[in-house]
Design goal:
- With 494 residues, the chain is α+β, with helices and mostly antiparallel strands.
- It has two domains: 270 residues, 2-methylcitrate dehydratase PrpD; 125 residues, 60s Ribosomal Protein L30, Chain: A, CATH 3.30.1330.120.
- Helices cover 50% and strands 7% of the residues.
- The chain has 21 helices and eight strands.
- The strands form three sheets. A four-stranded mixed beta sheet has the order 6-5-7-8. A two-stranded antiparallel ribbon has the order 1-2. Strands 3-4 form a two-stranded antiparallel sheet.
- Strand 7 and strand 8 form a beta hairpin.
- The longest helix has 28 residues.
- The protein is globular.
Length: 494
């Protein structure tokens, strides 16, 4: 037992980590990164924009946008997919809520959060505030957010999650702050203060996964906190200088308790965390993607339909079981997207688990509920023994009514860095998400600009394509008022 009486007497977890990360973020140049990083970063940007445009039209995002529109704000930045202009901080709140609004944003497995929905909108909105910047400047700011935020997130790791905190709202705050600081060209000292301010605003509780709209809001609030932190630091406001590593009251000591600091500041500019980011091809929590992939593979290979299935058994990690294998209830779209049983049921019935499978009308579908009741999940100690890098692994077994049993072990999900989706795959996902919101020619232009983003002279050209006309926006608002009853939610998700 430790006989020290004051937590502050403990040694720092990683001395000068906050300062080191601030120096890195403030001094980062796009030329520091190899070509593979640039290509991956552009995929992350396009993926984020698709998520934001799609998410802007969802009920929970509309509520946030309506609140912002009512409160006003200097018209310096855009809420994508609408005609609203407001302050950069308000725009980040709405856009990053939209980016995380339907479980489609990218994922850094070790950090357990989604970097593009707390970095890309922040960089674009602050670029608007400055009158537009070059594509290289935009990409540099986003890269700073990815590298700083995910390193802090991976240090917090599963310990933070098991304590009940949502990494998107906690670790994600640092990604937003690092992006905002680099966007504003802050000095290393100012950047350190921005991180110290942002960490004090980190918030988000995992109980939201079982049905609350606020889960989507965690991303937006983290982004807004990051913008506030950078703007305050720019004016000389100070934050906790050792926010990451402080032994008492620091981020890692408070939120994680037993963090893994091995990669916190090691190999900066040599090992790039953005390359460890994967993309989501199912509109569900990442932890169940291996099971979804495995079920689809078993059904395709054995020519099975849902009517052939007697039961499904899934062996998963402790984290996946805690995160996703709780008894399904038809409470909300959020709870369905976070639930292993619902995801497997719609995959069996439809052959996919994308946006149409998570309409509110499907939540109580008798066919879905009947399958849910024939699915079981349990913790497999062998998966836990593989370590955190394999926390998404699973073994799925399908038993048919005629007595056949087919099992498949899936160690890596499709879309992750070990089984990557192509640039063309990201483009197809983008088109699928924006097709009901943007004309095809507009989608083409956005893809072209992002593919050549390092040569773009003015980011306002990109932002202009992400806005819809006031007439279309006003029509959409009349059709779906933010404070209407749940029937409005059904139509808006079709």
């Amino acid at each position: 037992m430790n006989d020290r009486t004051h937590p502050s007497e403990d040694a720092p977890l990683s001395p000068d980590a906050t300062r080191t990360l601030a120096l890195f973020g403030a001094g980062l140049r796009l030329r520091d990164a190899p070509p593979a990083v640039l290509q991956q970063l552009k995929r992350c940007v396009l993926d984020a924009l698709g998520c934001c445009v799609f998410g802007a039209n969802l009920p929970w995002t509309k509520i946030v946008a309506a609140m912002i529109e009512e409160q006003g704000g200097r018209p310096e930045a855009s809420i994508f997919g609408t005609s609203i202009r407001t302050s950069a901080s308000f725009a980040a709140l709405a856009n990053c809520t939209a980016g995380h609004a339907f479980e489609l944003d990218d994922i850094h497995r070790a950090a357990i959060f989604h970097p593009n929905s707390v970095t890309v909108p922040v960089a674009l909105n602050l670029a608007e505030r400055q009158g537009g910047v070059t594509g290289r400047a935009l990409l540099t700011a986003i890269l700073a957010g990815y590298e700083v935020g995910t390193r802090i997130g991976r240090a917090a790791g599963q310990a933070l999650f098991f304590r009940g905190f949502h990494p998107q709202g906690t670790s994600g705050t640092f990604a937003a702050a690092a992006t905002a600081a680099r966007s504003l060209g802050l000095t290393p000292v100012q950047t350190q203060n921005a991180l110290g301010i942002a960490g004090s605003q980190a918030a988000g509780l995992m109980a939201a996964q079982e049905g609350a709209d606020v889960k989507r809001f965690h991303s937006g609030r983290a982004a807004q906190s990051g913008v506030y932190a950078a703007l305050l630091a720019q004016r000389g406001f100070t934050g906790i200088g050792d926010i990451v590593e402080a032994p008492y009251g620091g981020f890692l000591s408070s939120y994680a308790g037993a963090p893994d600091v091995s990669r916190l500041v090691a190999d900066l500019r040599a090992s790039w965390e953005v390359l460890a980011v994967g993309f989501k091809m199912h509109a569900a929590v990442t932890s169940i993607h291996t099971a979804l992939d495995g079920l689809r593979s078993i059904m395709d290979e054995n020519r099975l339909t849902a009517s052939d299935i007697d039961r499904i058994d899934v062996a998963v990690s402790s984290l996946t079981h805690k995160h996703c294998a709780w008894p399904y209830n038809a409470k909300s779209v959020t709870s369905a997207q976070m639930n292993l049983y619902f995801g497997l049921a719609v995959m069996a019935l439809d052959g996919q688990a994308f946006v149409d499978q998570y309409r509110a009308a499907r939540l109580s579908d008798p066919k879905v509920l009947a399958l849910v009741n024939r699915i079981e999940a349990h913790i497999d100690p062998a998966i836990d023994a593989r370590g955190a890098e394999h926390r998404h692994a699973c073994t799925i077994t399908v038993t048919t009514h005629d007595g056949r049993s087919v099992a498949k072990e899936v160690l890596r999900r499709h879309g992750g860095p070990e089984s990557p989706v192509s640039a063309a795959g990201i483009e197809r996902k983008f088109r699928a998400l924006v097709k009901r919101r943007l004309p095809n020619e507009t989608a083409d232009k956005i893809i072209d600009l992002v593919n050549d983003l390092e040569h773009l002279d003015d980011t306002n050209r990109l932002v202009a394509l992400l806005r819809i006309s006031a007439k279309k926006h006003d029509t959409a608002r009349r059709r779906s008022r933010p404070n209407r009853a749940s029937s409005r939610r059904v139509s808006s998700l079709r």
